[in-house]
Amino acid sequence: MSDPGDFAARVDAALGDATLKRAIERTTGTARTKRAAAIAAWPEFPQARELGRDMKDHVIENLAHYLVEFEKNALRAGTKVHWARTGAEACEIVVDICRKAKAKSVTRAKSMLGEEIGLPHALEAAGIERIETDLAEHIIQLAGDPPSHIVWPALHKTREQVAELFRAHHRDPGAMASVEAMVASARRQLREKFMAADVGISGANFLIADTGAVCTVTNEGNAELTTTPPRVHIVTAGIEKLVPSMTHAMAMLRLLVRSATGAELTQYTTFHAGPKRDGDLDGPEEFHIVLVDAGRTRMLNEGLAEMLRCIRCGACLNHCVVYRQIGGHAYGATYPGPMGSVLTPMLNGLEESVDLPRACTLNGQCQEVCPVAIPLPTLLRGWREKAWQRGFEPARVRWALRLWRFFALRPWLYETAGNITLRVMPLFARHGWISRMPLAGGWTAHRDMPSPSGGTFLAQYRRSVRK
Amino acid sequence: MSSARNEILEAIRGGTPDADAIAAQARRLRAGACRPERVNGPADVVFLERLRAPGIAATAERVLTMQDFPDAVRRYLTTQQLAPTVALQPHAALQALNWAGIETHAHIGTDELVAVGLALGGIAETGSLVFHSGPASPTLFAFLPLHHIVAVRASTIWPWLEDYADAVSDSPQPRNVNLITGASGTTDIEGTLVRGAHGPGWLHVVLVGDARDAS
Fold first, then answer.
1. Chain A residues touching B192 at Cβ < 8 A
2. Nearest CB partner across the interface for B110, out of A64, A192, A246
């Protein structure tokens, strides 16, 4: 992963990449249209959203209770339950289970928590072959890229790039003339791997407290092919994934799927509970769940409890004006977009990720589309305040804000300065547009600025009051 | 790792949780469920409509009795120009039928072309099939074949998702509950929808009987 401190350089590179912009807009545009249609078809969506928020809040307020209940019921189903304080501890547990199972190859169904805790690297370091089975994860595994979106991890890749990767890596790639041919080639390539894997690893969309079951959702069917044939199934799940019962999960699924893809339900919604039973012809002999904290209890205690509602639908990414310009990799972290900019400072430290909460226009779109009503702009502002208090803002920013404060506290001076600026700016304009001006290079390097007209805001305001 | 468990629980815990109060609140949230006004007719009729809607990659038909199911399978194989060889889910209700003219086997191969199955039930709201794993219903029968032909009885169609969840809430949790809504698909390459990513590329549902006959 790239250097987290190099945010500006990554943004510059992303802004200059026209192919990337087209790729992002293609997928997020479709996602926005489909989500809007799904929500328009359900007039009670706002009430359902409030209910979803209340369900998540209820679980988070009673998290210890539900964790203990989940553990009790999971054990009863024959599941082995593990607890991990940190990502590293979780990886150690998973690698240890794989070693005990003498695993040579592991299939994995996409899990953002797995990415967050660095599980792919841990498996590689342990010398275990890792096969990503979600089509997008398969693409980025071949490319050696990190995911760039939490629902469509390969959305930065065009079909031509995918065809090239498959031609280079697939056993029997065929002509690669269409997206259908590419999907068929991946199907052929992964089929034997599914059946030959020793361990299957998945995440969890929901943990069902009253049955100890784990709910996964996919459209491809790769989760079930990952979790059923191998001898061992391991689930890694954040402790915030709990819901009281399957009935509650159904209400959450309606929100999750509409917000993510605009469908009403994913093709495959599966509740996994424990290992193979007597007489079962398939299913794993061992079933493990690793419950991972990795900063979640800190979020609970440090004013970020609302973020624990997040069900990872990706709607805030698809609607974010910043994400749509720069894509996922520019954020330099596992979780991009608005939800990522709230999570990353908690997971990686604020000093390292201080740029992320700033890369936001506070337009509020993310909060509007969030299916569990997380006040993302407020949480981002909270990080900005903390960054200011802890002195993480660069000196330039601090001085600029002090200067602004000096003027803002003296209205006559503020207005005079405004008037002077308005007179000076047109001197740099050509045909009503400014393409170069001293002190404005950061703006004009990428776009022109309209020459100001009509006087300062205060002057216009006074005129309209007089009318 | 019990110390990790204790540390995590300690970091969360405020006071002693009042289990009864929590359960009462969870019940209130459950009762407040808000669901789309979709199921506005008999559940089996809505189920069939949903399956035929453009949002779901499936085809569907209705037959009168289970005895008519093998004919539906034969018709499907002929229409799709498939060889008459199928993996038959090892369910007594299926094995009891007359499969003359079709070679059936009770195991599922990695590259199985056609599997024939029987779902536990269906959900009208979403057009989903419900499978519970067990000796008569191995999970892979629904995921390995390219074509999946499934019978489901009209008398076991639940109107909404919650109706199914409530109906099974007192029975033991099966190892796997699979809700299957149309054939496998992916939009991972440039958002283009392609069928048959890893699971079946075709799903054909045969609704058996009429819900009103059963009542």
1. 159, 179
2. A192
pLDDT in tens, B113-134: 999 999 999 999 999 999 999 9
Q: What angle in degrees, to the nearest 10, is found between the helix axes of B2-12 and A63-76?
A: 150
Between A63-76 and A45-61, two packed helices, what is the crossing angle to 10 degrees? 80
Residue A48 at interface with chain B, using a CB cutoff of 8 Å? yes
Residues of A in contact with B129 (CB under 8 A): none
| Buried/exposed code over A245-281 (b: 16+ C-beta within 10 A; e: otherwise) | bbbbbbbbbbbbbbbbbbbbbbbbbbbbbbbbbeebb
Sheet holding A129-132, edge to edge: A80-84, A286-292, A232-238, A199-202, A105-108, A129-132
Q: Measured at the alpha carbon of residue B65, what is the angle toward residues B60 and B70, in degrees to the nearest 5?
A: 65
Count of beta carbons in the 10 Å neighbourhood of residue A177: 9
Please name the residues in contact with A326: beta carbons below 8 A apart, sequence gap of 6 or more. Answer: A10, A11, A14, A15, A359
Confidence label for A211 from pLDDT (cuts 50, 70 and 90): very high
Find out whether A68 and B9 touch, Cβ atoms under 8 Å: yes
DSSP reduced 3-state for B46: helix
Alpha carbons within 13 angstroms on the beta-carbon side of residue B32 total 16
> Cβ separation of A159 and B142 shorter than 8 Å?
no
* Mean pLDDT of chain B, nearest integer: 94
H or E segment and range at residue B206? strand B202-208
Alpha carbon separation from B125 to A135, A314, B49, B82, B172 (Å, rounded): 28, 24, 10, 32, 24
Which token pair is A35?
Answer: 């989500």
Q: Are A159 and A182 in contact (CB under 8 A)?
A: yes
Does residue A247 belong to the interface with chain B, where contact is any CB pair within 8 Å?
yes
